[in-house]
């Protein structure tokens, strides 16, 4: 077995059916030998029935894994253990892939000098973006898992995103799996498990490749185009950043386990949020404030946990 596509899912049975059908109809990778590993991460909906139904239409193409430990990283690590391929391709359960996506992404790793590869992730807008949302920059689209570095293929100097990435299976043997203290867990909004792994490889001197012709479309649904979702996403992102990197090196002064520089940053961005004359800018500043609040909350919770305070589960 040359290529394994690993798709992890949690309570998205309706979206899952469309995603699996789209992947199953792929033009095969260069080796022609491939499988789709579906990891059910403790779903309570019709997920298992959906996998069984589509498996009957494509005999021998699918394998099914149930992972009862909640969390996307647990599910991805279970998929890695179950996969038979030499190249492991990761994709989300709600995307729409283009016909030659798998062939293009896996072909990137025919060059043995590359440890992994990332493809293009473009937005699939379910409705018009609201006027208060800025969409003209890469990082403004981060909550929607968009990854677009343009048309040129070549070396990738930043980590790819989990909705469209591939690695050699041997790389996981060498560097370990995805960190289970990062990433989505049920309805939680932690992140960074995918990018942390890519950064781990780049720091170790491994080479990654960008393949713009390996395109997936990620849905941007109305429920994601609301202020509550975006604020929660950036709060979770702030927590994830501290959990992955810790406070800034050289931080000297702390209040309740929180570096003083984070409190200064919070005050600065809160002033921008409260006093900017532009409503659109005010919301962008508010997102930054929520990210800083997430960083502060993670620092405070970690300090309380380290001190052994009862009832504290900051790293849950």
CATH architecture of the largest domain: Alpha-Beta Complex
Question: What is the N-to-C succession of helices and strands?
Answer: EHEHEHEEHEEEHHEHEEHH
Give the name of the CATH superfamily of the largest domain.
Spore Coat Polysaccharide Biosynthesis Protein SpsA, Chain A
Count of separate structural domains: 2
- Look up the CATH topology of the largest domain: Spore Coat Polysaccharide Biosynthesis Protein SpsA, Chain A
Describe the model.
Helix 1 (13-24) runs parallel beside helix 2. The chain has nine helices and eleven strands. It has helices at 13-24, 47-57, 72-82, 101-107, 169-175, 193-203, 227-245, 260-275, 279-306; strands at 3-9, 34-40, 62-66, 87-91, 96-97, 116-125, 154-156, 164-168, 208-220, 254-255, 258-259. Strand 1, helix 1 and strand 2 (34-40) form a beta-alpha-beta unit. The strands form two sheets. Strands 1, 2, 3, 4, 5, 6, 7, 8 and 9 form a nine-stranded mixed β-sheet that branches.
Task: Give the secondary structure arrangement, pairings included.
Elements: E1 3-9, H1 13-24, E2 34-40, H2 47-57, E3 62-66, H3 72-82, E4 87-91, E5 96-97, H4 101-107, E6 116-125, E7 154-156, E8 164-168, H5 169-175, H6 193-203, E9 208-220, H7 227-245, E10 254-255, E11 258-259, H8 260-275, H9 279-306
Parallel strand pairs: 1-2, 1-4, 2-3, 6-9
Antiparallel strand pairs: 4-8, 5-9, 6-8, 7-9, 10-11
Helix pairs in contact: 1-2, 7-9, 8-9
